[in-house]
Specification:
Blueprint lengths: L2 H12 L23 E6 L8 H8 L6 E6 L3 H9 L5 E5 H9 L4 E8 L3 E5 L7 H5 L6 E4 L5 H8 L9 E4 L2 H10 L4 E5 L2 H8 L4 E5 H9 L8 E6 H6 L3 H11 L1 H6 L2 H4 L12 H7 L8 E2 L4 H11 L22
Parallel strand pairs: 1-2, 1-3, 6-7, 6-8
Antiparallel strand pairs: 3-10, 4-10, 4-11, 5-8, 5-9
Helix pairs in contact: 1-7, 2-11, 3-4, 8-14
Keywords: Signal
Protein name: ABC-type transport system, periplasmic component
Amino acid sequence: MKKTQLASLALLLALAAWGGLHLMPHAKQSAPQGGRTMLSIYTTGQATTPQMPLWKALAEGDLSFAPDIHYWKNLDDLRGTLLAGKGDIWVGHIDGFAQAAMRGTPIRLVCVTGWKKFFILTSRPDIRTFDDIVRLPEGAEIATAPPHSPAVAVLHSLEGVGLPRFNYAPYEAKQLALKAMRGDTDLLLLPEPLVTALLAKAPNLRVVASVEEEYGRMTGREPLLPMAGIAVNTKTLALHPGLDDRLAAAMRKQEQPLLDDPESGLATLPLEFEQFIEPEIVRASLARDIIRVRSAAESESMIREYLSMVFPECVGPDGIIPLPDDFFGGSR
């Protein structure tokens, strides 16, 4: 087998979950000891830093419940899980949580934990910085993964401040990775840790820009965007009052230790994560990621601004996304 075929196979395995291959439909921990309360957590094996504070808090005993772990396989699966009200605690995308809330899901956003996820990669020698991208002609193609990437909405919002209107071509991650390795596409928009996984297999690619940093530079705002976090089922809160506050406090407590030693968070991720993505890839991705835990209430203005980019059609006459009053959890 040729080296390129071997590399393609290795990357396909690393990206299986990104591509929607359901490796582990319902992976669970063993039964809890000591009669602890068990709460179901629906998460993904592809998000790393956004959930490290949660798993580290659980590993260190800052949270008293035992996790019953389930994995959603793609964004459509997450939406279906949320709309069905399945689960007690959810790890996922802020826009997915908000969309579910607007459709009646009993959900409260506890914390924002994913702030810097999307990057632009290229193999083109004429593109070295984001300014080179700004100079590209209208209609130039940027290949994106996963489909319905919120980063596309962010870049569309920058068209009013000088970014050309590009053609964003959506692909499943494994499909786009193979195109990039064959040299069939040379300008890509991807999230971590997919960025690191692809760079390891396609050395002709390099990172030229962070979407969040360029958003901050072109708008004068903070170079971060509230993209992922932790939410709870409000029906679960009725049975376990104060769970949202305990979650927020426990995860906030882990922020500084994780900033000091990000690898300590890797050690507390569920063992099943290794079946989604190699630990070495996760470790390398930390160089471009960021550890930051903020309550939803504390981040409300940033969340609303972000959602107005992702769901412009939902912005009311008053300029506000109509979310339930109790959607934003935590203290300000």
